[in-house]
Write a structure and sequence with these properties.
- This protein is of the alpha/beta class.
- The chain folds into two domains: 189 residues, 3-Layer(aba) Sandwich (D-Maltodextrin-Binding Protein, domain 2); 206 residues, D-Maltodextrin-Binding Protein, domain 2, CATH 3.40.190.
- It is 48% helix and 13% strand.
- The strands form three sheets. Strands 7, 8, 9, 10, 11 and 13 form a six-stranded mixed beta sheet that branches. Strands 2-1-3-12-6 form a five-stranded mixed beta sheet. A two-stranded antiparallel sheet has the order 4-5.
- Helix 2 runs antiparallel to helix 17, helix 10 crosses helix 11 and helix 21 runs antiparallel to helix 22.
Amino acid sequence: MFRNRRGARWLALITAAGLAAGGCGTSGPAGGGAPGEIRVWTLQGDAVNKVERAGVEAFNKSANAKVRLETFLNDPYKQKLQVSMGSPNAPDVFFNWGGGHLQQYVGAKQVADLTPEFDKDPAWRDAFLPVVMKTARIGGRYYGVPERGMQPIVLFHNKDVFEAAGAQPPKTWDDVLKLVDTFKARDITPFALAGSQGWTELMWLEYLLDRVGGPAAFQAIMDGRPGAWSDPAVARSLSMLRDLIDRGAFGTNFGGVDYDVGGASTLFAKGKAAMHLMGSWEYATQLGQNPDFVKKGRMGWTPFPSVPGGTGDPRNVVGNPSNFYSVGAASKDKAGAIRFLKESMTSDAYVQGLISVGEVPAIKGLEPKLRSGPDAPYATFIYSLVSAAPDFTQSWDQALTPSVSQALLTNLQKFFLKEIDPREFSAAMGKAK
């Protein structure tokens, strides 16, 4: 559930926390690039842009090439890419989020198929974690390579609050329900929730459906199969979530709490809430907003609990597998663009650069480098969590079409506020197009 704003905020907070520094990117020209130039479009983010620019400079020196990196703010980027793809102004290489975002361009035949290149050099494809590469695989073909770090959703807990209650982080759903009672009795909100934004609530349904019905349950939704939103696994997941809401697991004022201004994160860090289900960027968020909470080792993390009777593997994760670079089908130098991806994305310098700014790249065998990097305990946890996952489901609001995603977030907020029940939610989503 990449939020472009979340990704940008994450990088900014890393910089603020002293983990990285770098100059702001600048947007590129309105027209096409110079003759013979390979134009690479990506999002602004001081820390990662610095790493990306170093990769471009190294490639240009070694390959005598003319790669130009152009950076954009999130919303303008999405609009500019939408307009530019298929036009003379289309970039040679472009940043994307895989899944549904990438699929729209694949369907319009505006993206180069990288599968033949991987077939010629399988070691290139196999350098990346397969569970992440799946997000750039559409119709059995590959259309992108991971370009930044992985962002699974993690269950964070406040160690001070848990120790005071003599409690342990939950491993099963029964543990979750017991902890709700434990912390409510101590006048502590069990789970911080920025309910003014639907994407924070979506994380709960994503994980519950995966644990109850496995990845196939959401795949049916993504494929648009009739009745997918009324599947028994969806019904059970919604019922469990409604029970959690009714028990007061999120308190009574979550609808007015915002994530972008730090509301939920502050409640969690200050011990007003015991736990927080959030993307892995929460670590950097806390470093920026409440540094002592992290530096003194008072924030803990754990995988999402298992669900008794569920068919989903409890090792599965949901969230943002990665961000990707893809090659435009209309590029006048496709071979050069592909060579840039091949030589830059897996180079030791580029990978080490990402690690140095707090990213966890989707590259195999990174444990030794992560152990010697910044925030090693957390970075190695994230890497191990994803590496061991049989499946990494992309956040639904990213995997589904924009119109269905908007309907999903709108209906989910109504559901959390108990304006609609599970049956009404499924019926409304079944009509979403």
